[in-house]
Amino acid sequence: MSDHAHSETERLLREARLYSTACRRATLSVLLGSDRPLSQAQIADRLRDRGFNKVSIYRTLASLVEVGLVHKAFLHKRTWHFEAAHRCSQTQCHPHFTCTRCGATFCMTEVRMPMAQGQPRGFVILRQQVRLEGYCPGCAG
To answer: Which of these, 8, 54, 59, 89, is most buried using a 10 Å CB contact count?
Structure first.
């Protein structure tokens, strides 16, 4: 991890009032450096040489989600995918696009979606997440 990435993760953890552990710094750094959401298994694979076990990564993700540094982007094939929350607002996550051919998922940070309107009486929308499906450029051709 570069000095800049290390100081950025330290700052984010301090602002969230979380202890700065090696596992938290490494997990947050992986997510900040990723251009797409990752499953817990993908995060563990990227941290394989660091010696963190799956339980530590699971607990780390839970603590990072609880304080809002990371969020659960979407559920795919019964597996949650996580991403750093720095590109989303408190109430709305940027859309995600999943290719139905190759299965790759992409962050669509340049796409803007209006908040849902006209919810039925009694429902309160706290957060909006949109997942789009179709063919990615590699599969569409």
So the answer is: 8
